[in-house]
């Protein structure tokens, strides 16, 4: 991907979806943090199904601590790795209460110090809740960045750093949303829908799969 390709790639995604948003359901910064923590190796749909009910009676660190591990496990048992996630979430709640006054911190180091919160989760919270132009690299973003030639990298951190260098500033706030949604619904893992892809003309792989597409628009 050239710089011109990248501009056209994001301009096209932005035109189709001017205000992309996370598909996780939440009404507070803490609910977002909890939902993202629970979403590791799970679908947003499965997390929403569980938290839609859970958050009606326990949607603060204090309330989840009062709920306890057994009841929390029961509430999220339909989510993969629910026992480990319940333990991490409660440990996180305790730290939030004891060190942060029950509030979610707004810096990378403090977020990543929370059990179960890695760099991706921290980036999601900083971006979605606090409006910072971070790029959370999940499996979809990693795949799309490599497959398209946008930001090739051997690991998520390398891809994240490359995205910071290559994504134009005006697109950076929403870039990871567009890439996640594109990877989830179009540039899928096993059978990417290249012939139906709106940005294939600027994708290194798409131009090979549909070789005449670029010629028709340039």
CATH architecture of the largest domain: Orthogonal Bundle
Uncertain stretches:
213-218
Q: Which superfamily, in CATH terms, is the homologous superfamily of the largest domain?
A: Hypothetical protein, domain 2
Q: What is the chain-wise order of helices and strands?
A: HHHHHHHHHHHHH
The major β-sheet equals: none
Q: Give the helix/strand class.
A: mainly alpha
CATH C-level category of the largest domain: Mainly Alpha
| Cα-based radius of gyration, to the nearest Å | 19 Å
- The outline comes out as elongated
Whole-Å distance between the termini? 15 Å
Overall mean pLDDT stands at 94
| Count of helical stretches | 13
- Percentage of residues in helical conformation: 55-70%
How many strand elements? 0
Write the CATH fold name of the largest domain: Endonuclease III, domain 1
Beta-strand percentage range: under 5%
Protein architecture, described:
- With 218 residues, the protein is an all-alpha fold.
- It folds into two domains: 3-20 and 137-217, Helix-hairpin-Helix base-excision DNA repair enzymes (C-terminal) (Endonuclease Iii, domain 2, Orthogonal Bundle), CATH 1.10.1670.10; 29-129, Endonuclease III, domain 1, CATH 1.10.340.30.
- Helices cover 62% and strands 0% of the residues.
- The chain contains 13 helices and no strands.
- The chain has helices spanning 3-16, 29-38, 44-57, 61-67, 69-75, 82-100, 108-112, 119-129, 139-148, 156-166, 169-185, 204-209, 213-217.
- It is elongated.
- The two termini are 15 Å apart.
